[in-house]
Amino acid sequence: MQKRLGLVVFSAILVLLMAVAAGCGGGSGGDSNAGGEINEVTLKLAHNAQVNSPIDLGTHKFAELVEQKSSGKMTVEIYPANQLGGNREIIEQTTMGGIDIVVVGLGVFGYLDDRFMMMQVPFLFRSQEQIHEALDGELGNELKESMLENSIYMLDMNWDRLPRQITSNKPIKTIEDMKGQIIRAGATPPIEVFKRMGAEPTKVPLNEMYLAVQQGVVHGVELPTDYIYDYSIYEVNKYCNMLNHTYGTLGVGLSAVTKEKLSAKQLQILEEAAKEAGEYQNELTWNQQADYEEKLAAAGMILVKPDDITPFVEAVKDMIPELEQIWPNAKGMAEKIYAIEAE
To answer: Which interval of the chain is the signal sequence (predicted)?
Structure first.
């Protein structure tokens, strides 16, 4: 009996020692969240840009880099042009893990946190450098933290977009010219600003806006020139009013649900790939800026520059208190943005 009891005790001690040894053995194995683990995984990425646009090509570069960095163990499937739903739908699906990665303009994240709404207020930022400085500093960190609280981990927020313009069938050079214009807008910030300038902005999904302009439901749209060209708006509008009213970027957001299933190494790969692909996308975007303007002109559009942008900028400054009431989480953000000198 004593011999059998001794054997049991010895076996128990041996199991305990093996467990301790395994616990001290580092992160080379174990579950999928171990630091060095790269398990096979397929990730679903959604965006709203047209196929072969700079944004779409940027997402393909991202997928290529992820595959390379993971030695083929990580695959990214790309669903462009709102194939998986409108902007709000793909953001909500990402929070729930139905979509793993979403690439959309910062304003779209405003559906989850209204601080992102302020980032897309027309005439607030006056250069691309100014918005990058904001995103690379304290303000950017606050936005990342707010998204994580809303189940999205921001891999990168510096994928550039071209400045936004307004199309129409009459020139828009002054605030007075905005009055009565029914303008398609895809996000809340331009709607709130333009209606205070006398326009009648309304939301229309990207895949419906061509018909909306053609049928006279709206007079024009507000979009970057690449979207204006890629969605063939030049066929239904005569003027492209070069207001540069919104400088913005895209965010690359990873579902927090998906993040919990990835190892530290896999997350590092996604972050590195997002940054490198963003640099590639930015180069494509700015190299094509003049090209898109030339293509719009060649297609018959007249590009109109405003007489003076200052009245628009000053009008928005006066609107900030009202906008902060609509988006209380954004209170004080405009002041921080104005403190960053536009280059």
So the answer is: 1-21
What residues make up the domain containing 323?
Answer: 164-246+291-339
Number of domains the chain contains: 2
| Tens digits of residue pLDDT in 62-114 | 999 999 999 999 999 999 999 999 899 999 999 999 999 999 999 999 999 99
Same domain, 195 and 320: yes
- Find out whether 88 and 111 touch, Cβ atoms under 8 Å: yes
Instruction: Return d(Cα 269, Cα 228) in angstroms, integer.
Output: 34
- Nearest-angstrom CA–CA distance, 341 and 343: 6
300 and 172 inside one domain: yes
Q: Band of the pLDDT at 36, cuts 50, 70, 90? A: confident
How many Å apart are CA 110 and CA 327, to the nearest integer?
10
Q: Say what the pLDDT of residue 187 is.
A: 86
Q: Compute, in degrees rounded to 10, the torsion defined by CA atoms 278, 243, 229, 203.
A: 90
Same domain, 188 and 219: yes
In the structure encoding, which two tokens stand for residue 272, read together? 């590195």
* Contact (Cβ atoms closer than 8 angstroms) between residue 249 and residue 186: no
